[in-house]
Design a protein that fits this description.
It is a single chain. By secondary structure, this protein is of the alpha+beta class. The chain has 2 domains: 3-63 and 165-345, QueA-like, CATH 3.40.1780; 67-149, Thrombin, subunit H. Helix content is 20%, strand content 28%. The chain has 8 helices and 18 strands. It has helices spanning 46-49, 141-147, 164-167, 190-198, 237-248, 258-267, 307-316, 318-330; strands at 27-32, 37-42, 54-59, 61-63, 67-72, 77-85, 91-95, 106-110, 116-125, 131-135, 148-149, 175-178, 203-208, 231-234, 252-256, 278-281, 296-300, 341-345. Strands 2-1-18-17-15-3-13-14-16 form a 9-stranded mixed sheet. Strand 5 (67-72) and strand 6 form a beta hairpin.
């Protein structure tokens, strides 16, 4: 399969630059795999569209304020995206002007008001293009609260604002570690979740910390040659037991977001049982993949030629996805992280 087969033209004005005025006031495109059709709804209608024999799985990862600005020894400004802590206490980072950021260089990290904070030094240049940075004083999340900015994706062409500090988090986010939001969950309000539970549909939580690789395009001509980035996931044993029981009883597993899909499919064995409850996953789901655990998926609209577009095409079929996306473009749906949602139902 060729990467170019997953390209589509998207008018730039349909890329959402802001969230909806109120959380949950989003449009919802129902993509029905059973009959190959789609229909227009609102997110508030989601509970009525779920099969009654369903269970829902969400990703409770919380976004770190991982974008931090620094001043180099020569006075230049450099942007760091802190991806996660390494075994020796250094932080793995992506940087701007990467080729100039050499091992041994030192930086002063800046507070949000522009004043100096602690210093950091690059101690390694990694094969994947990242840099390992050791801070002079490391107080963990306090550093990111003082100096960090919400790491909005590159297609949102503005600086982060105070509003993003809440709107780029799901209402159930609890375990910090992501550098991008599991954005399908942004559509949920506490009230909507309560309505789902009142229908007797359980909601279970798993964790996958979203890495910066979620934004990386597929650069290979053939999609089979693409290598996914690695992300850390975890499912607690009680949740796994409940989900395994639900699956054995024939209930439908509704994943909220592609990160929930990747978690469940990584943890499932060949018999469709969750057994590998934690680990690093680089699973690449594209057409031809046979789903072991997930039945249905609520997700956002994805970028052309992306691994996420290939994932939803694996679930619903490329032809149906592309036809539904064309309808969404014609009807002026809002795309990507702060955009509208689609529910792929069997």
């Amino acid at each position: 399969m060729l990467t170019k087969d997953y390209y589509f033209d998207l008018p730039e004005e349909l890329i959402a630059q802001e969230p909806s005025q109120r959380r949950g006031d989003d449009r919802l495109l129902l993509i029905d795999r059973a009959n190959g059709t789609w229909s227009d709804w609102m997110m508030k209608d989601f509970p009525s569209l779920i099969h009654e024999d369903s269970v829902i799985v969400v990703n409770n990862s919380r976004v770190r304020k991982a974008r931090v600005y620094a001043r180099s020894e020569t006075g230049g400004n450099v942007e760091f995206l802190f991806l996660g802590r390494e075994g020796d206490g250094a932080w793995k980072c992506m940087t701007t002007k990467t080729k100039r950021q050499k091992a041994g260089k030192e930086y002063v990290f800046l507070r949000k008001d522009g004043s100096d904070d602690i210093t950091g030094r690059i101690i390694r240049e990694n094969a994947d293009g990242t840099r390992s940075v050791l801070l002079s004083a490391d107080d963990g999340e306090e550093f990111f609260q003082r100096c960090g900015h919400v790491p909005l994706p590159p297609y949102i062409k503005r600086e982060d604002s105070w509003n993003d500090e809440t709107r780029y988090q799901t209402v159930y986010a609890s375990r910090i570690g992501s550098v991008a939001s599991p954005t399908a969950g942004l559509h949920f309000t506490s009230e909507l979740m309560d309505k789902v539970r009142s229908m007797g549909i359980p909601i279970h939580e798993v964790t996958l910390h979203v890495g910066a690789g979620t934004f990386l395009p597929v650069r290979t001509e053939r999609i089979e040659d693409h290598h996914m980035h690695t992300e850390r996931y975890e499912i607690d044993p009680e949740t796994a037991d409940a989900l395994n029981r639900a699956k054995s009883e024939g209930k439908r597993i509704v994943a909220i977001g592609t990160t929930s899909v990747r978690t469940l499919e990584s943890a499932a064995d060949s018999n469709g049982r969750l057994t590998a409850l934690s680990g690093d996953t680089d699973i690449f789901i594209h057409p031809g993949y046979s789903f072991r655990f997930v039945s249905d998926l609520l997700t956002n609209f994805h970028t052309p030629e992306s691994t996420l577009l290939m994932l939803v095409s694996a679930l619903a079929g490329r032809s149906l996805i592309f036809s539904a996306y064309q309808h969404a473009i014609e009807e002026r749906y809002r795309f990507f992280s702060y955009g509208d949602a689609c529910f792929i139902r069997g």
